[in-house]
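Need Unconventional myosin-X's 3D structure for a figure. Predict it.
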Amino acid sequence: SQWFSVLSQVHASTEQEIREMHDEQANPQNAVGTLDVGLIDSVCAADNPDRPNSFVIITANRVLHCNADTPEEMHHWITLLQRSKGDTRVEGQEFIVRGWLHKEVKNNPKMSSLKLKKRWFVLTHNSLDYYKSSEKNALKLGTLVLNSLCSVVPPDEKIFKETGNC
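Structure prediction for Unconventional myosin-X:
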């Protein structure tokens, strides 16, 4: 019934009235919810042929799927939201990507059980640093130095299917 009501209202409206409805809907004061841009971990185009011009906003707690009217508008949103994440430098060093990951840690040195700890990772050209949180002055817990002896390999498909972990 809500859809019918909206369609009836639009059908009976003039171009000017439709434009006013659209502007009212786009007014931030009428928003259903908000998202602090400081909480955005990443923004990227979605690879879904059924939803052209779609992109995702990823935070530590949720993934938001968004659609734009045109590819240009989609890229504009992505650029704006990526820029809002702040500087692309951490401690003076340019980073490639940053975000939440789970680090495996041994629960007890005498046992073989592993525990996953959520950590904020920052990948730079020569290191992978991890922190307790994503806060600006968070305690750095460790650094993995990347050099010519390092390599990146795809996750074990069987383990990923069983646990969802890479």
